[in-house]
Amino acid sequence: MDIGHRMKELRVHYGLTQQELADRSELSKGFISQLERNLTSPSVGTLLDIIQCLGTTPAEFFADDEPEQIVFKKEDYFTKIDENEHSKIEWIVPNAQKNGMEPLRVTLAPGGRSMELKPSEAEEFGYVLKGAIRIIRGTKSYLVKSGESFYLKGLKRHHIEAYGVKEAVFIWVSTPPNF
């Protein structure tokens, strides 16, 4: 890790000058400058003081964050086609099972259906983009048309079927991941 670069990055982020950081940490401006250019190394105690003055913790300072992906494109999606169930599932946020929620885009051909989900603590939200679906939950069924949404707790066995003679496309989000 480039400690000097990280120090400068945080100092600039918080809008501090080298002099202001020096004053807060009771060091000289020249020493801060040398640290930021990696011309010298601080003692552990001095580094901990600087980290505290920068308003962070050692764990956050040394965290080697990989860039966070915010936008996902079609080429990022993972797709599973089930010929038997006449369905296509697209994981529109790859590896979302490690996150707090897992969004899918599901396409059901006429007569198509989703996998059957067993009872769980998951909460599920969906929005129908095209066509209509029928949610079969326990002994009840619910019709959801294009432009409508659904929200349910996964406490009962359930699945989703295409309704009518047109293809159905919907976004389906589960938290925690359940798919």
TrEMBL record:
<dbReference type="InterPro" id="IPR014710">
    <property type="entry name" value="RmlC-like_jellyroll"/>
</dbReference>
<dbReference type="Pfam" id="PF07883">
    <property type="entry name" value="Cupin_2"/>
</dbReference>
<dbReference type="InterPro" id="IPR050807">
    <property type="entry name" value="TransReg_Diox_bact_type"/>
</dbReference>
<protein>
    <submittedName>
        <fullName>XRE family transcriptional regulator</fullName>
    </submittedName>
</protein>
<dbReference type="Pfam" id="PF01381">
    <property type="entry name" value="HTH_3"/>
</dbReference>
<feature type="domain" description="HTH cro/C1-type">
    <location>
        <begin position="7"/>
        <end position="61"/>
    </location>
</feature>
<keyword id="KW-0238">DNA-binding</keyword>
<dbReference type="InterPro" id="IPR011051">
    <property type="entry name" value="RmlC_Cupin_sf"/>
</dbReference>
<dbReference type="InterPro" id="IPR010982">
    <property type="entry name" value="Lambda_DNA-bd_dom_sf"/>
</dbReference>
<dbReference type="InterPro" id="IPR013096">
    <property type="entry name" value="Cupin_2"/>
</dbReference>
<dbReference type="InterPro" id="IPR001387">
    <property type="entry name" value="Cro/C1-type_HTH"/>
</dbReference>
